[in-house]
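Handout, section 4.2: multi-component inputs.
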Amino acid sequence: MRNPIKDKVAIVGVGSTGFRRNIEGRSRDSLAVEASIKAIRDAGLRREDIDGISASSPGPGYMASALGLPSVTHYTAGHVPFTTAVIDAMNAVFAGSAECVLLYHSVYRAPAISASAARDPFRRGLGFGGSIPQVPSRIDPESVAGAVGYAAWASRYLHEYNASREGFARVAVSDRSNAADNPLAAVRDPMTMDDYYAARMVREPLSLFDMDVPVDGADAFVITTAERARDLPHKPVLIHAATTGLVGPNEEDQIPGLEQHGQHVVVEALRAKSDIWIPDVDLYFPYDGFTIITASWIENTGWCGPGEASDFLKQNWDEQRNRILINGKIPLNPHGGALSEGGTQGSGHIREAVVQLRGDAGPRQVAGAKTALLTLGGFFFNAQGLVLRSE
Amino acid sequence: MSAITDADLLGRFPDTWINHDNKEFYRGWLRQRLLLNHCGDCGYWQHPPRPVCRACWSDNVHATEVSGHGTVHLLIRLHQGPPAPGVDYSEPLPVATVELAEQEGLRYTSTVINCPPGQLRIGLPVRLTWTERYGAPYPVFEPLAEGAGAGA
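Output:
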C-alpha cells in the first residue's frame, strides 16, 4: 500500500483547556479558541503563519474570525473522531494547500447525555458535542443507532466468545489508574474492579463505567512540514502512517459481524503503510469511548486473538499500579483515555501521544518513548488509525 | 384498502424524516406490513432503505414484505433511554436486533414483547407483530411460539 507521506509531516504544537465534567459559564467555542491559541503559541508560530484550518467544531470560518487569521488558503470541517482532521491537515500540508494548519476539537456536554447539562439553560436544545439545535425529530428507544450500537455488539461479543465482563472492567480500571497522573483529566479518583461491577447498568450489558465521561473542553494542534518542524521549538512528532476505515454496510445493526467492520480495514491499511508495528511500539492508544471498543481494538490489532482480550489483559496486568502494562512496558492510554480523562473523540489520545513522544509527559512519561500506535474510533463509520514517531 | 397518499403519510409521521427512499417503508407501517428493500434484479435484501441495491447497483429496488420471522442476534436492556409513550424504564426495556429469515445479515431492530425477561436471549426465534405509537402502528417482535424462550 502506498504511503508517500511517511514522516514528511509533523505535529509541532499542542494546546488543551483540560477536561472537566462541568466548565461553568463558558461556551463551547471559547474552549476551542483557548486551545487553539495555546497550540499556536506552543508551536512558536504567529497568526500570520497559520494558513490552514482543519476544524471539527466550531467551523473554520468562526475560528479564522475569532483568531483574526489574515490569510487562510485551506479550510475544511471534518467528522469525529479527530483523526479525520489530522489526516486532512497532513494531506493539505503535503500537497501544498497550506504550510501550517491549525486543527482543534471541542467537546461540550449535551443535555441528552448529561443531567447537569440538561439543567443549564444555555445548553437547551444542543446536540452531540454542543452542536446547534436541530428540528425536533422522533427518537424511538427501540433502536441501536448511535452509541447504543456498542452495547448491542457488546452483547454479541459476550455471547459469541462466551466471555465475561472482566476484560471490560480491566479497561475501565486501567484508564482510571492512569488518569491519576494527568492534571487535564476530568475523573482522577482511583477505581477498583469491585467499583466497576457495582456500577449501575445503563445499556445492559454496559454500565456507567463502560461509557466515556461527558466533559467540556478542547484540544488543538498545529501541523506543518517535517522540514519546517526542525526549526520550531519542540521535538517534531512525525506522522508515519494514517488511515480511516469503513465497510458497507456500516449501519449499527447491519455490519457483517464482530470480525468484519471498520477496525479491520484500519488495521490492514495501517499495517501495510507502517514500518512500525506491534509489539515493537512504545505507546498504544486503543480508543475507549466504550470498553467493548478497546477490547475489540486489542484483538483486531493482533495483540491477541478474537475473544481473548480478557485473558490478554489479565496476563499483562500491572498489579502494583492497577493498570494494563503490555509486556511489562507498554501502557494503554496513559492519560486516562476517554473513560477517565473525558470523551474527546480521540483528540486527547493524539495530544497525549505527542506529549509522550516529545518526552514532556512528566510523571506519566514512558521512558524513551519514540513510537506510538493509535487505533481510534469504533466499528461503524468512525474507525481510524495513526502511527506517530519522534526523530 | 384505499391508497395512503403522500400527504397522509407525512401527516401520520410529523416528526420523522421521510424521503423518497424510505416512504414505502413507512407506508408499510400504516398497513402493518414490514416492507424492506429487495432488489428486483439480483434478489438482495437490505435495510435501511437506500436508492440502489448494494450488491448489484440496480435501482430496481422495491419495498417488499418480509415474513417477519427471525432470530435475536443482538440484545440489550435499556435501563434508561429516550422518552417514548408506554416506555418508563421501570423495567429495563429490551432492544433486540433480529436477523431475519430472508437473508443472512439482514436485520431489523425493535423490542420483544410477550416474553418473560428470563427467556429473552440471543438466539431466540421470534416473529413480527405490531403495537401502536403516536397513533400509528409500530413493528415489534414476540417469541415465535408459546414457551419458545425456554431451553433450545
